[in-house]
Specification:
By secondary structure, this protein is α+β, with helices and mostly antiparallel strands. Helix content is 17%, strand content 30%. The chain has a three-stranded antiparallel sheet, with no helix packed on it. Strands 3-2-6 form a three-stranded antiparallel sheet, covered by helices on one side. Strand 2 and strand 3 form a beta hairpin. The chain is elongated, with a radius of gyration of 25 Å.
C-alpha cells in the first residue's frame, strides 16, 4: 500500500489592488476666474429665483464638452442661462490615479437668495 501524499497548501488569493483615487472636476478654484452667470433681465423683473443643477461633462483639458439640466429651477430662462454660463467656464479636470480624465460633474447654480 502506498503512503498517503500530503496535499499542497492552497495559497490565498492576492488582495485586489485598491481602486485608483478619483478627484472630481471643480469650477470654483480662485485662479479660474469664472464670471458669475448673467441673470436674465426678464427673470430679474419677474422675480424668478431657484436652484439649477447641471450635469457637465468636463474634458481632460478642463473645458466643458456638454451640459444638461439635471434639476430645473422651474424657469426656462434661468436653466438656459445656467447652461450658457457653465459652458463658458473653465474647470480643473477630474483625475483618476492622478491622471486628468474626461468625467461628469454636477454643478449647482443658485439664482437669488
Amino acid at each position: 500500500m502506498a503512503a498517503p501524499v500530503a496535499a499542497a497548501p492552497v495559497a490565498a488569493p492576492a488582495p485586489a489592488p485598491a481602486p485608483a483615487k478619483v478627484e472630481l472636476p471643480i469650477s470654483d478654484a480662485d485662479y479660474l476666474q469664472n464670471p458669475a452667470p448673467e441673470w436674465p433681465r426678464m427673470s430679474q423683473r419677474l422675480g424668478e429665483r431657484g436652484l439649477v443643477v447641471l450635469r457637465v461633462l468636463i474634458g481632460a483639458d478642463g473645458r466643458p464638452r456638454s451640459a444638461q439640466v439635471k434639476q430645473s429651477s422651474g424657469f426656462t430662462r434661468l436653466d438656459e442661462a445656467s447652461v450658457t454660463a457653465a459652458m463658458a467656464w473653465r474647470y480643473v479636470p477630474g483625475k483618476r490615479g492622478g491622471v486628468p480624465e474626461e468625467m461628469w460633474v454636477n454643478v449647482p447654480i443658485r439664482w437669488g437668495d
